[in-house]
Design a protein that fits this description.
Structural class: alpha/beta
Number of strands: 26
Helix content: 25-40%
Number of domains: 4
CATH architecture of the largest domain: Alpha-Beta Barrel
Distance between the termini: 27 Å
Bound molecules: beta-D-galactopyranose
Length: 649
């Protein structure tokens, strides 16, 4: 599996480019991404293009044997443009128009900005579409980053109202769907419909807020798609990608991924709370198109934008790169080649330091390149467990978390993290996806109900699947209005239980529940008291007025089983659940990741501890050549890649 690096030739003298290219190749790097912020160099004056520098950079990199990913520069429109046309600048939620000097400052919904973006993209595609060195394209850079997916400018107001008109067809339909009889909100003209940034007393209607989030996401997808079309027309053989920044959840990444050939993401593990949160994001990205992905930017050492910017110990970059591959990355590019002397990111490390000396990150990248040259990269086996997620559920819960501290992503993370700590490989896929091939599926807070999905779940469980659903399942409709049925709406037969009552729980006042009365654990945030009709209670509340009431139920349905989790799934609840549902679930030592491969096992030690894990059988480590029969000792940041051998061979 190839490795590469992100490079900014425009930051360094041209005499340096050939030296850098040679040094990249010496470290086994094959890809180099360039160009994604270079608009003001490519078009220094309106309509006047300057591409000699890029021609020369491409020739230099290509003749050194590197394959180039060329970026379109639409994340950074030039100062002459924003000065001439300030109405293209984005307006934030407090009504302030951005100014020049950073990035992602343009409104990507604006038809004029879209036209200018298509023009610069067309220029690049015409000029480099069949360049032998340009092997892939990247659209823009981190669409939606810096809160940029949601703009509140006058152009957006008009576009949003027009979109509502074409989506709902009539004001009567919109008024009905949004429940605008509440507080006399009924609209009689599309132009009366506010933007969420407009100040109101008592907050906006949650149906309007969710619709705006859907609309804003679609704008980004359309902006990307328009550029993809241009590249496809001029470079039909080259994959077109775009790179996702985790944490930016203003865009439905499933929709964005559908607009490109291959999806990529930017992996800075220090921006995550845990190693399993990084693995989750890998699996989320793999699930977007249900195909391998690229890591377009991999953290190469310390970075500059977290609160503490901690050190990166020896072995860590190599470990992260193995984690990338084992979760489905096809190509991994490090960000960046050389630490930058100028402007905003001077404290960010690179594979070279500011003085052009190779860093530890460079040595580890070179080591991985050599190892994968010799053995290929580790490939995970297909997973049989899936998490179902959805961006509309996420947005609706962000808009009205109801319980202090409720976070959809934290819930996804805690369920994924618990499965990972039990050695269970997981796909993270969109609600409504085909479920064949899975034996267990967890629907994570699927709040917005969907009757056709309810039928899909019934059929899938009846045929033998195990469906687990969490609190807040099927409580509202797709417009974010509450259901008029017992909860979970339209699913009480499948779960053999109803939600008798539900409540938020203050952080200082959790309830308790237990698998067996001797071992109660806290239930934070949320509790649903379940009323079984056919299901069996498997966890009960042990505190307060709900003592003895079911907190989790399980129900046989056809050949399968449905499990309804009413209590917020605390670690103890989940740790009790997996071994009951998954025969191969085994609690692993803290920090240890186990990935089942097509032809063996990968063990990664993400912790600072020396740990031992049991490996019954006869195994050889591809990397060290060591032979193991009982157990493997894993030192901090160890990578052990086992394949089965005949005893002692
Ligand atoms: C990414 C971005 C890069 C660079 C990097 C620094 O989010 O795409 O351009 O800013 O962060 O870590």
């Amino acid at each position: 599996m190839p490795l590469g690096v992100c490079y900014y030739p425009e930051h360094w003298p041209a005499e340096r480019w050939a030296i850098d290219a040679r040094m990249m190749r010496e470290r086994g790097l094959e890809w180099v991404r360039i160009g994604e912020f270079a608009w003001s160099l490519l078009e220094p004056r309106p309509g006047v293009y300057s591409t000699d520098w890029l021609d020369q950079a491409l020739t230099t990199l290509h003749s050194a044997g590197l394959k180039v990913v060329l970026g379109t520069p639409t994340a950074t429109p030039p100062a002459w443009l924003t000065a001439r046309e300030p109405s293209l600048l984005r307006v934030d939620s407090s009504g302030r128009r951005l100014s020049h000097g950073g990035r992602r400052h343009a409104c990507t919904t604006n038809p004029r900005y879209r036209k200018l973006s298509r023009t610069i993209t067309t220029m690049l595609a015409e000029r480099y579409g069949d360049h032998p060195g340009v092997a892939a394209w990247q659209i823009d850079n981190e669409l939606g980053n810096h809160g940029s997916a949601r703009c509140y400018c006058p152009t957006c107001r008009h576009a949003w109202q027009q979109w509502l008109c074409s989506t709902f067809g009539s004001l009567a339909a919109l008024n009905q769907a949004w429940g605008t009889t509440f507080w006399s909100q009924t609209y009689s003209d599309w132009e009366q419909i506010p933007l969420p940034s407009d100040p109101v007393g008592g907050g906006h209607n949650p149906a309007l807020l969710l619709a705006y989030r859907r609309w804003a996401s679609l704008q980004q997808v359309e902006f990307c798609r328009q550029q993809v079309e241009i590249i496809h027309a001029h470079a039909p053989q080259r994959p077109v990608l775009t790179n996702i920044a985790p944490g930016d959840d203003e865009i439905d990444w499933f929709d964005l991924a559908a607009s490109v050939d291959v999806i990529a993401w930017d992996n800075y593990p220090h921006g995550f709370p845990s190693w399993s949160a990084v693995s989750l994001f890998h699996d989320h990205i793999r699930g977007l198109k249900r195909q391998p992905f690229w890591v377009m930017e991999q953290q190469p050492g310390p970075i500059n934008w977290t609160p503490t910017n901690p050190p990166v110990p020896p072995g860590q970059v190599r470990l992260w790169t193995y984690q990338d591959a084992a979760h489905g990355a096809d190509n991994v590019l490090f960000f960046r080649w050389r630490a930058c002397r100028i402007a905003q990111e001077q404290y960010h490390s690179g594979l070279l330091n500011h003085a052009a000396q190779p860093t530890r990150g460079a040595a580890e990248a070179a080591q991985v390149a050599q190892e994968w040259q010799a053995h290929g990269a580790p490939q995970a086996a297909p997973r049989h467990v899936a998490l179902l997620i959805d961006y509309a559920d996420l947005w609706a819960q962000q808009l009205d978390p109801h319980a202090q501290g409720w976070s959809y992503w934290k819930l996804v993370q805690s369920i994924y993290g618990s499965l990972a700590r039990h050695g269970i490989g997981v796909d993270v896929i969109r609600r409504g996806s085909d479920l064949s091939g899975y034996s267990l599926v967890v629907a994570v807070a699927p709040m917005l109900s969907n009757p056709s999905e309810a039928s899909q779940w019934r059929d899938w469980v009846a045929a033998g699947g195990t469906l687990v659903a969490t609190p807040r399942t099927f409580t509202k409709d797709q417009h974010n209005c509450w259901s008029d049925q017992p909860l979970p709406a339209g699913l009480t037969d499948l779960f053999g239980a109803e939600v008798a009552e539900w409540t938020a729980l203050a952080p200082s006042e959790p309830w308790q529940a237990a698998w067996d009365a001797a071992h109660p654990f806290d239930v934070p945030l949320w509790a649903e008291v379940l009323q079984p009709t056919l299901a069996n209670p498997i966890v009960r509340y042990t505190s307060g007025y709900a003592t003895g009431s079911p907190a989790v139920t399980a129900c046989t349905y056809g050949k399968g089983m449905s499990v309804l989790i009413g209590a917020y799934p605390a670690p103890e609840l989940l740790a009790g659940l997996w071994p009951r549902l998954l025969p191969n679930a085994v609690a692993l030592p803290p920090g240890i990741e186990h990935i089942t491969l097509d032809d063996g096992h990968l063990w990664l030690n993400h912790s600072d501890n020396h740990t031992t894990v049991a490996v019954p059988g006869s195994w050889r480590d591809r990397l060290s050549g060591h032979h193991y029969t009982q157990e493997v000792a894993l030192e901090p940041r160890a990578i052990v890649w086992l394949h089965q051998t005949q005893d002692g061979v």
